[in-house]
């Protein structure tokens, strides 16, 4: 491939990651839009689905809260709180049930001390620090020609990459747990489960895209650093 004059050729490494990210975002938006309009035959809202899954798993101590935003759903293992976005919390749709059960899956992981979840939780402050300061340190190193500073920034960015890699098994496992309980507890009918799976698979792809993008960025940074030596 011909690279325009003056353009860093390592930027080409990011193109596949950008394409995958765009594709992943389009998939999750499409799947969520389709199945957020298809009502559940059981008529249960996302909050009711989550509550049923938590209670039947012996997690009555985990509370459920409504939060603002779109797809801002998450489980907080420190406070034992499952937070659902407004659409998921109050609507009786296939998408809401899938997302709510997925987040309840994280609470179950916490209950059974699921190893990858513990590793990811341990990595949170380190990844947050790396995300905030790695690029600043790398840019300063590049401007002033400090190879050691560039290497330090790369080490910090590697913490972000590790966090995203630890996230993958956590998210895949939570989705598997969600689909299992949705069928087992008959929250979804046999024909509704595959539809919920489409939503969760699309969501999982966004995590894959994020991890791949970070890996390619890390490779690019290593190449740039080695050129400066």
UniProtKB/TrEMBL annotation:
This protein's UniProt keywords: Membrane, Transmembrane, Transmembrane helix
Domain of life: Bacteria
Transmembrane segments: 6-24, 133-166, 204-223
Pfam families attached to this UniProt entry: Zn_peptidase_2
Record protein name field: Zinc metallopeptidase
Source species of the chain: Proteiniclasticum aestuarii
High-level lineage: Bacteria, Bacillati, Bacillota, Clostridia, Eubacteriales
């Amino acid at each position: 491939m011909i690279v325009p004059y003056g353009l860093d050729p390592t930027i080409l490494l990011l193109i596949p990651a950008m394409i995958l990210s765009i594709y992943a975002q389009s998939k999750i938006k499409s799947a969520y839009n389709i199945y957020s309009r298809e009502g559940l035959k059981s008529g249960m809202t996302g909050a009711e689905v989550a509550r049923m899954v938590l209670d039947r798993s012996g997690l009555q101590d985990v509370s459920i809260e409504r939060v603002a935003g779109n797809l801002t759903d998450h489980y907080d293992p420190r406070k034992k709180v499952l937070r659902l976005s407004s659409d998921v919390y109050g609507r009786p749709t296939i998408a809401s049930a899938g997302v709510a059960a997925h987040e309840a899956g994280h609470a179950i992981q916490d209950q059974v001390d699921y190893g990858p979840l513990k590793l990811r939780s341990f990595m949170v402050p380190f990844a947050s620090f790396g995300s905030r300061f790695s690029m600043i340190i790398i840019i300063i190193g590049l401007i002033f020609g400090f190879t050691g500073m560039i290497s330090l920034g790369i080490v910090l960015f590697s913490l972000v990459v590790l966090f995203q890699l630890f996230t993958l098994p956590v998210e895949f496992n939570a989705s598997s747990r969600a689909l299992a309980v949705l069928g087992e507890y008959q929250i979804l009918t046999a024909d509704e489960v595959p539809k919920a799976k489409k939503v969760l698979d699309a969501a999982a792809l966004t995590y894959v895209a994020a991890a791949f993008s970070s890996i390619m960025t890390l490779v690019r940074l290593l190449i740039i650093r080695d050129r400066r030596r």
